[in-house]
């Protein structure tokens, strides 16, 4: 009876949501699959960084590994976009999951020799990630609408981070069961099984019927010059990349340097991701597109405070804690609001929505360029984890995040300019798509 009452309450809560904001069955499936993928990725990704650190104790090796995986991104995304356009975005999505599974299988086989071939693993990992994210980001656009996208992104962030919360805790527990580096192999094996399961589960999604196979990658430079909102959004992704590139590997190394144990790093990750989940849930309840600029200001201010604390007081347990809390608690404000703004912008580009794949290629190219630039600064100035230059670079990247407020304020509606509308001839509508009507896949 209690179960029935709970189900009735959940159904009543769903019906209380306006119809235009409800999520489709496909939207729910993509969130579930992405969460399962993230469970494996959060178990393995965090501890792959620590595994490299334990094998080499070199900040340069870890930074180079991340830099190479991001540097291969633009080319990999361009190829992934070609697959998504000429085949289907699900082909790219599944190939990305499959290559990720292969990546961790090779890590298991190589063992300690991963450190000898870290550059090859970085290139394979970056390629696999590009294929997966191109497919998934395209799916996110397809299964959501302007009316429910903030809500979709909020739920996606909650489930993504719940998986990310469980992953490090489970990995820390598994590592504690074995001596030496054997625990890492146990974690990588478990993650490999999860990626295989996610690949199988992806066949629950249906391919989108589309007659439009043209790949307009060469049109992007023209759009960049002619469409001011599109150009500014790409600048925004570059700015985000400068901070995100550092945060994808530094927090775990900094936490390990002050805590000294892998399992404690995993448990600390649980608490930090709990903050992200809380913020993401608040966005699903209270988030509105009109406040996106305010969210960006709050997020950037928090990042500056966290990085500034480490710069002023050095690398200590409490300063690393403040820095990590500032990032994990406020990153949804920035990412979710700017992602929703960017998706609105894509829907207003020429060719009536058929540039969504190309726009994601452009977005990820600028995002990875920002990551590479920030990692290059770390390699140039910081020799170890105690270097004050780490905090200086972090503070500079955090200050750049205030640009999001300027971008969103300058282009609040994301409408293309008159010159941008003329960038593509009006008769360039894809075959089978009536002029003036968006394709049914969107």
Q: Which terms would index this structure?
A:
442 residues, single chain, disordered C terminus, mainly alpha
Structure commentary:
The structure is a single chain. With 442 residues, the protein is an all-alpha fold. The protein has helices at 2-16, 25-56, 59-71, 73-86, 89-110, 118-143, 149-177, 182-201, 220-226, 228-247, 250-259, 262-286, 292-313, 317-347, 356-381, 388-400, 403-410, 418-421. Helix 5 (89-110) runs antiparallel to helix 6 (118-143), helix 12 (262-286) packs across helix 14 and helix 13 runs antiparallel to helix 16. The radius of gyration is 22 Å and the shape is globular. The protein starts with a helix and ends in a 21-residue tail after the last helix. 51% of the residues are buried.
Quick structural gist:
This protein is an all-alpha fold. The protein has helices spanning 2-16, 25-56, 59-71, 73-86, 89-110, 118-143, 149-177, 182-201, 220-226, 228-247, 250-259, 262-286, 292-313, 317-347, 356-381, 388-400, 403-410, 418-421.
- Radius of gyration of CA atoms, rounded to a whole number: 22 Å
Q: Any idea what the shape is?
A: globular
Average pLDDT reading? 78
Q: Distance between termini?
A: 41 Å
Helix content: over 70%
Largest sheet: none
- Tally of extended strands? 0
Share in β-strands: under 5%
Low-confidence stretches: 412-442
Structure annotation, total helices: 18
Secondary structure class reads mainly alpha
- SSE series: HHHHHHHHHHHHHHHHHH
